[in-house]
Amino acid sequence: MKLLEERMLKDGNVLGKDILKVDSFLTHQVDFKLMKEIGKVLAEKYADRGITKVVTIEASGIAPAIYVAEELDVPMIFAKKHKNITMTEDILTAQVYSFTKQVSSTVSISAKFLTSKDRVLIIDDFLANGQAAKGLVDIISQAGAEVVGIGIVIEKSFQAGRQLLEDEGIEVTSLARIKNFNDGKLNFMEADA
Ligand code: G4P
């Protein structure tokens, strides 16, 4: 997605050898106009696939996911990283290991929001090692629902996430694919949409 790549080049900051800071439009401050465009492109790709729910994980997946859900006219559910006192009913959970933070955490979705009839599109802001996405796939499978695909805003193609998901037979659609950060500069490979 050209508009996204241009924005990453303009406002993204490379930190170290493998982190891209995009807090001015995606992960902290959110550019809703860009999110709306992202929503349109991902929704168009999955428009005829019978999607009934969009699922993401808090926090930064929520912004793009809500616009995809709006375009597809289906509910958006975000997995929670912390159980709160109102989650008294059955919950579906998965363990997610973060290589970045080197901690494992439990993510959860209330069982009442997913059924075996659901066809789910997963959306997330970053795909790195794919652990968050894998946790969501796990939860959706526990509900007996089907994962139709995964839409990603920024994929770091030099990390293992895409391969991990494709090995499970899941279609990945990434709007920007970072090949590497050689010399602190962003190099892209061809995106999926
Ligand atoms: P994984 O889910 O693909 O395995 O990712 P990993 O454990 O490596 O990353 C953990 C967190 O760091 C995730 O957010 C992920 O979105 C984010 N992340 C990974 N690479 C980058 C990057 O290059 N830039 C930025 N800005 N973020 C990155 P999180 O902490 O779980 O969630 P959130 O609350 O910030 O959304």
UniProtKB/TrEMBL annotation:
<keyword id="KW-0328">Glycosyltransferase</keyword>
<dbReference type="Pfam" id="PF00156">
    <property type="entry name" value="Pribosyltran"/>
</dbReference>
<comment type="pathway">
    <text>Purine metabolism; XMP biosynthesis via salvage pathway; XMP from xanthine: step 1/1.</text>
</comment>
<dbReference type="InterPro" id="IPR029057">
    <property type="entry name" value="PRTase-like"/>
</dbReference>
<dbReference type="InterPro" id="IPR010079">
    <property type="entry name" value="Xanthine_PRibTrfase"/>
</dbReference>
<feature type="binding site">
    <location>
        <position position="27"/>
    </location>
    <ligand>
        <name>xanthine</name>
    </ligand>
</feature>
<feature type="binding site">
    <location>
        <position position="20"/>
    </location>
    <ligand>
        <name>xanthine</name>
    </ligand>
</feature>
<protein>
    <recommendedName>
        <fullName>Xanthine phosphoribosyltransferase</fullName>
        <ecNumber>2.4.2.22</ecNumber>
    </recommendedName>
</protein>
<keyword id="KW-0963">Cytoplasm</keyword>
<feature type="binding site">
    <location>
        <begin position="128"/>
        <end position="132"/>
    </location>
    <ligand>
        <name>5-phospho-alpha-D-ribose 1-diphosphate</name>
    </ligand>
</feature>
<dbReference type="InterPro" id="IPR000836">
    <property type="entry name" value="PRTase_dom"/>
</dbReference>
<feature type="domain" description="Phosphoribosyltransferase">
    <location>
        <begin position="34"/>
        <end position="157"/>
    </location>
</feature>
<dbReference type="InterPro" id="IPR050118">
    <property type="entry name" value="Pur/Pyrimidine_PRTase"/>
</dbReference>
<comment type="similarity">
    <text>Belongs to the purine/pyrimidine phosphoribosyltransferase family. Xpt subfamily.</text>
</comment>
<keyword id="KW-0808">Transferase</keyword>
<dbReference type="GO" id="GO:0000310">
    <property type="term" value="F:xanthine phosphoribosyltransferase activity"/>
</dbReference>
<keyword id="KW-0660">Purine salvage</keyword>
<feature type="binding site">
    <location>
        <position position="156"/>
    </location>
    <ligand>
        <name>xanthine</name>
    </ligand>
</feature>
<comment type="subunit">
    <text>Homodimer.</text>
</comment>
<comment type="function">
    <text>Converts the preformed base xanthine, a product of nucleic acid breakdown, to xanthosine 5'-monophosphate (XMP), so it can be reused for RNA or DNA synthesis.</text>
</comment>
